[in-house]
Amino acid sequence: MKIKSELSKIIESALINADINAEEIVISDATKPEFGDYQYNGVMKLAKQLKKNPREIATQVLAEIDTTGMISKVEVAGPGFINIWLNNEWLSEQTIAILDDTRVGVGQVEKAQKVVVDYSGPNMAKQMHVGHLRSSIIGDTLSTLLEFLGEEVIRQNHIGDWGTQFGMLIAYLEEQNTDGNTQELKDLEQFYKDAKVRFDESEDFANKAREYVVKIQGGDEHCLTLWQSFINASLGHCEDVYKKLNVNLTREDVRAESFYNDQLPQVIETLKEKGISRVSDGAECVFLEGSDVPIIIQKGDGGYLYATTDLAALNFRDKELNADRICYVVDARQAQHFKQVFSIAKQAGMVKDEVALEHIGFGTMMGQGGKPFKTREGGTPKLVDLLEEAVVRAKDAIKDRDVRSEEELDAVAKAIGIGAVKYADLSISRESNYIFNWDKMLSFEGNTSLYMQYAYARIQSILRKHNAEVTGSIIVADEVEHRLALMLLKFEDTLTKAAIEATPHTITSYLYDVVTVFMKFYELNPILRDDIDEATRNSRLQLATLTAAVIEKGLSILGIEVVEKI
């Protein structure tokens, strides 16, 4: 239900009837319950244009607002704000209408855009570490959200699989296992370290590694076979992590650096032809307006850089994938790089002017004390180890709460542990750094995944105790029921805002508000007590059922599972 859109139409009609022209009508959530459910704050701007007293204009508009349907009451507040309260009967009708809707009242876009979301981007030389967490889950949440809203999403996992280090790695792989068997690659970290030791210690090995780089680039069949063996093993490790994380990236979503290798000469040629690049100190460079520091796109020895590959990828996503919007979910520290690459791509016509290019930047996950997240030994923790520890800690947190089989306990611990890690990350404004804290993320209180899962499980417990079909209407009869019904109907507006702004924390904040209001509702409005009449009981059961549906759908968009019992 797009409530703000409907209210905008009502305000627009009132302005027309008041003979006032407004370019844009923006409806905001009220900051406090006593200010209504929503506010129209556009009168101040209109007052400047019309050179009139804002309260006078607000009173004039208020007199034209229709209060016979959706709106129950309006009032002028402050210097000229219009506070709006929604009608309880209207809320009742709208909530009951979406009870059996699998989309819980959320519509789809009228015209789907083709959106490319570039995320995760693991290094093929090492196992995924905690530094890959944020890109993987933010990117996947954004992709799932956009798909749910009806957009056509193309996931892209831009992996680094090309470059000088791979000559070293395949030379060492050949030494260890000439038949290309990947058994030796179980521990990628150790394999890389051992290969580097050989490279540093043996000049013959180092020369062979350098030769293999040339052979890979030249298409040598033997070297490419070894290279592919290494890439397959690396991707296998990534897929194990994606499965644990409930991230929807597959082998088909991989678009590696090597994919664009043949396109790099054309990138250079295009930039030369359009007069965008020029030679400086032997290298092909682009000098953007306002900067004296060049962006090198081809080194003097003919080698290419990240910017070259990123330009080729942008050109491919525009020309071949026909994207309308291209989102890069990459560390905020790369902001300058993407700003430059986007500018060059638009100047060179590699991307059409109307295509939206977005760097979805994010901050860093920190350890206690605000320092980089490290193991006790000082290294960067492997992501798979972090996730396994999350499940162990979750199991310990819930093992005494209910009698269940070991199999059930394991399944619930997995949902809670993985959910806790993901939710703790997604609930933070993505541009902010945050401190990783086990106790906080596995708490039954506060804005945590476990708090959401517990609320869902509590509702399921209520429904099991009722043990009968729930029928009848939803009757919004008091303030807390009004607030809960209104929150549930805000789901579509919330998801739309999160999709436009690429802000998963918009969804987590909304879910926290929903659960907080529901807990208040549960406290003040008994559901199964014997002295409650049937119509009231059924109404409250329906509200609880709808609340559970919204929680489940919201968490599923975040890639988090609900549990029936905790």
Automatic annotation (TrEMBL):
A cellular component annotation (GO) from this entry: cytoplasm
GO molecular function: arginine-tRNA ligase activity; ATP binding
Superkingdom assignment: Bacteria
Signal peptide from the UniProt entry: none
Main location: cytoplasm
Catalytic function, reaction form: tRNA(Arg) + L-arginine + ATP = L-arginyl-tRNA(Arg) + AMP + diphosphate
EC number of the protein: 6.1.1.19
Keyword entries, A-Z: Aminoacyl-tRNA synthetase, ATP-binding, Cytoplasm, Ligase, Nucleotide-binding, Protein biosynthesis
Compartments it resides in: Cytoplasm
Pfam families: Arg_tRNA_synt_N, DALR_1, tRNA-synt_1d
GO biological process: arginyl-tRNA aminoacylation
Protein's UniProt keywords contain Cell division: no
Domain Arginyl tRNA synthetase N-terminal, residue spans: 1-86
Alphabetical list of HAMAP family matching this protein: Arg_tRNA_synth
Family annotation (NCBIfam families): argS
Assembly and interaction partners: Monomer.
Homology family: Belongs to the class-I aminoacyl-tRNA synthetase family.
Annotated protein name in UniProt: Arginine--tRNA ligase
Organism: uncultured Sulfurovum sp
Designated gene of the protein: argS
